[in-house]
Amino acid sequence: ENASVSGIAFQKDQIKFTLHGVGDVPGTAFKILGPISDAEVEVDVIVQNVSVDGKTDFTFTVSSEDEDTVKKVLENVKNDISFKKLIVDSNIAKVSLVGVGMRSQAGVASKAFKALSENDVNIQIICTSEIKITMVVEKDLVDKAVEVLHKEFELEK
Amino acid sequence: ENASVSGIAFQKDQIKFTLHGVGDVPGTAFKILGPISDAEVEVDVIVQNVSVDGKTDFTFTVSSEDEDTVKKVLENVKNDISFKKLIVDSNIAKVSLVGVGMRSQAGVASKAFKALSENDVNIQIICTSEIKITMVVEKDLVDKAVEVLHKEFELEK
Ligand SMILES: C[C@@H](O)[C@H](N)C(=O)O
Ligand SMILES: C[C@@H](O)[C@H](N)C(=O)O
């Protein structure tokens, strides 16, 4: 199992924007991200879960330096997309486990989640692909998270 | 922009489990995924967005053949994790855009979202990493989604 995790990556200077309570209809994701991309802002993580009662949350992270640009863009699209509230959080960091064949091992993910929970690191966002588990945690906890995961997966620092 | 998308992947025989309304405290993700991994079930996508009022939704997909195993496992953990309801949906498929350097191009994501919305394909889940945009759509729409994305990004079938 350990053999499949090849490294831990992290990124601190990010800011998270969450549009809480958007309508789950075709076009919503484009109405949010289209204007952001037109403003030439680089987006990192995009995450959206299933809707319940027709509403869902749409979250994306950008570099901290783009905070004002994104706020302006979202101000302009406010009338085009209905959402209950905008949650902006700059007190975050991204931590990723990188490896190959990870997907087939819920064990890797659960091992990472266990190690973080034993060290009181709350996981705010989780998003996985075949070779990567991406998590967002509180900025102050990212160093601890990276250390805990290095130890858990027996990786060199 | 197009140059950065190298392919489209899809997977049909999946089933999506969503624990709606879990507590956003350390240990929750492990309590859900630990038993699933102990049962040797292969998990594909795991996605969780930020919590609002201390609650969030935890979704993961597995192969359709593992439906009964996962249901049994979740039945056993029900008392250990508080959640409002379990939503199980086998009418889904995964569609992914694969490429390099994709992250830096919100443009790629917004282009994909636009093309899908113009063809009335609703996106149920979105989860991105640097080289991949993963989406979950209704099973009946996956062929159309793949075709639309091939055309949009000028890829060979
Ligand atoms: C919420 C958003 O993803 C919507 N379902 C869409 O397809 O654009
Ligand atoms: C919801 C779940 O991810 C929780 N925040 C945890 O850390 O386990």
Largest sheet of chain A: 6 strands, antiparallel
Q: State mean pLDDT of chain A (0 to 100 scale).
A: 93
- Given helix and strand content, the structural type of chain A is alpha+beta
Task: Classify the helix fraction of chain A into a percent range.
Answer: 25-40%
Q: Of all protein chain pairs, which has the greatest interface, and how many residues does each chain bring to it?
A: A-B, 58 and 59 residues
User: Which cofactor or ligand species appear?
Assistant: threonine
> Which runs of chain A of at least 5 residues are low in confidence (pLDDT < 50)?
none
Reading the helices and strands of chain A in chain order gives EHEEHEHEEH
Strand content of chain A: 35-45%
Description:
The structure is a homodimer of 157-residue chains. Chain A has helices spanning 28-38, 67-77, 106-118, 142-152; strands at residues 5-23, 43-48, 55-63, 85-99, 125-129, 132-138. Chain A is an alpha+beta fold. At the A-B interface, strand 1, helix 1, strand 2, strand 3 and strand 4 of A face strand 1, helix 1, strand 2, strand 3 and strand 4 of B. The structure holds threonine (2 copies). One threonine sits between chains B (22, 24-29, 48, 56, 58) and A (113, 117, 122-123).
